[in-house]
Design a protein that fits this description.
This protein is of the alpha/beta class and 309 residues long. It folds into two domains: 2-112, Rossmann fold, CATH 3.40.50; 120-261 and 292-304, 2-Layer Sandwich (Dihydrodipicolinate Reductase, domain 2). It has helices at 10-21, 47-53, 66-78, 93-106, 122-129, 145-148, 164-177, 265-279, 287-298; strands at residues 2-6, 27-32, 43-44, 59-62, 82-85, 110-112, 134-142, 183-192, 200-206, 212-218, 226-233, 236-241, 246-249, 252-253, 300-304. It has a nine-stranded mixed β-sheet. It has a six-stranded parallel β-sheet with strand order 3-2-1-4-5-6, with helices on both faces. Helix 3 packs parallel to helix 4 (93-106) and helix 7 (164-177) packs across helix 9 (287-298). The longest helix is centred in the last third of the chain and has 15 residues, at 265-279. It is globular. It starts with a strand and ends in a 5-residue tail after the last strand. Bound molecules: NADP nicotinamide-adenine-dinucleotide phosphate (NAP). NADP nicotinamide-adenine-dinucleotide phosphate binds next to helix 1 and helix 3.
Length: 309
Amino acid sequence: MLVALVGIGKIALDQHVPAIAGSPDWELAATVSRHGSVEGVEAWDDFTAMLEARPDIRVVSLCLPPVPRFAYAAEAIRAGRHVMLEKPPGATLSECHALQDMAREMRVSLFATWHSREADKVDAARGWLSDKTLRRLTVTWKEDVRRWHPGQAWIWEPGGLGVFDPGINALSIVTKILPKPIHLSGAVLKFPENRQTPIAADLAFAHPDGAEVTADFDWRQEGDQIWTIEAETEAGTLVLSDGGARMTVDGAEAGTEEDAPLSGEYPRLYAAMARLVRDGASDVDLAPMRHVADAFTLGRREIVAPFEE
Ligand code: NAP
């Protein structure tokens, strides 16, 4: 299948281009970007012109930041194209619902991707937790924003999500591995006094069985980076670390190779998109984004030291 990649920035070059190149399902037929391009691939800077000139490209993969993404997605769907969205699927929940309605009407596939759900041990963790009684779940997602988002002004602007840009990855895993749904019960959001989005957040969730569920997101972490989810159950403690790449149960390595066919998060996403297009289906799960929206609705705001790059 031919695919056009839109927004040639960090994630497009780091992950999408190699995943497409390594896939038997896909061929990168065009890029659309104001500044970026991929060597040897037809490059456009005008999305409308590309859609008109290349009716043979049936699939568009959008790697833009969340705020500009809706207009591109809506235009692609109206032009009858199948659309793959980077995470988070939009700047607001309403935008995402509107895209779902449009995709249904136009009979095209819409895929709201959550790359962290494709990390190696996430399916194994889901399987292990499926018949356990949860007592406590603790998310610790602490990374250095200067290391992972250098020069990205949009993450500090409204709709850029701040620390929820990585934090939503943790929530995408939690909402996949927990057998029972949770909802936010309280939050503290820490905004640098010179920024529009939080640099840290503490979240608490209500669980139907009363398990204690919390998340600690922080972008001020220097040294070791921590992307860990710890789930304490009546039958032992599962720890998913390195963003879902490693799993232990009571300290012993767990999860087998068979739990994770294909290699890598983005190859799995593109394989899933190929299946959705073939099946005429869509996959839009907004649960991770709902929790983030709830945190902005319910969160207590604290002002912390200004952030300078
Ligand atoms: P980025 O490099 O800052 O932006 C991607 C590209 O989008 C830019 O190079 C730019 O290309 C285009 N763009 C930016 N603002 C635009 C606007 N207002 N209108 C039109 N085009 C615009 O961001 P990124 O890190 O790749 O992240 C993009 C998305 O991927 C985000 O939603 C992020 O959460 C997600 N993601 C990122 C990572 C990561 O490690 N960085 C990992 C997983 C997912 P042109 O200037 O050439 O048009």
